[in-house]
Amino acid sequence: MTHRIHGGLLPAAAMALTVASGLSSCSKPAEQNAAQANATEENAGAQEATEPAAPSNDQSTQNAKALLKKMSDYLAAQKAFSLSYDSVFEVVSDQHQKFQIATSGTVDMSRPDKIRATRKSGFTDTETVFDGKTLTIYGKGKNAYVQAEVPGTVDNLIDQLRDRFHRQLPGADLLGSNVYDTLMTDVTDVKDLGSGVVGGQECDHLAFRAKDTDWQIWIAQGANPYPCRYVITSKGVDQAPQFTMTIRDWKAGGAADFGFKPPAGATKLDAKDLETLKETSDLPENYKIGAAK
């Protein structure tokens, strides 16, 4: 069965992406578009009426920014850390049906230039390894891997993965050297929503609005303010699909092996053949990207 997707929320750097090239057309008559616009305005009014009350706009904004900056500074100060995660990202079919793709994995990182990340779902079992010089992307199902020279920091690796290889690290927005500036890009509204609990951990719950996305983050309270949950909502895509990442087993410090030793019988592919290693993709093969709304 093939699901044709006309809009999605792909977790490239944990960022919502609107997929806009067409295998299918989703255009509608002008009258229908106008009716939808009116309905959207009415819904927006209803949502505003139920918006959580904040102590005051200025105080709520200042509190949220301070808590996010505290998290960013804490993460930047960790020379090494590890975590496990569960993530769900949603895609929307051309018949306006949402599908959720669930993934789990691990991240081990040593600043400034080493990382090992795994990602496993129903269609992928992938390991990404970077030792400061060489990037390796290994697909366990095909027992095949691609290697490329990408010298530099993890910050540079995040950019290179996105721009050169059309791949991403899990929760990349939370892995860079300046998480605060990365997350606050184009933010227009900020709220401190009080406390929440994620996996038994009491957290500060913050909400942010930007031009194309709304996003929320839950930050562990106490001496170790690590991110517990990160949710991005894509406002410009039909059905407002979300990307959600929940972090567990957070551990500061520790040491990991960032070298890659090919398993027995593994095939080395040329970097230009990465697309043939389909299990490293974000979408299963039976999903096809179609037109945006």
Automatic annotation (TrEMBL):
It comes from the Bacteria. It holds the Pfam family DUF2092. Residues 31-61 are annotated as: Disordered. Keywords: Signal. This is DUF2092 domain-containing protein. SUPFAM superfamilies: Prokaryotic lipoproteins and lipoprotein localization factors (SSF89392). Residues 31-51 have a biased composition (Low complexity).
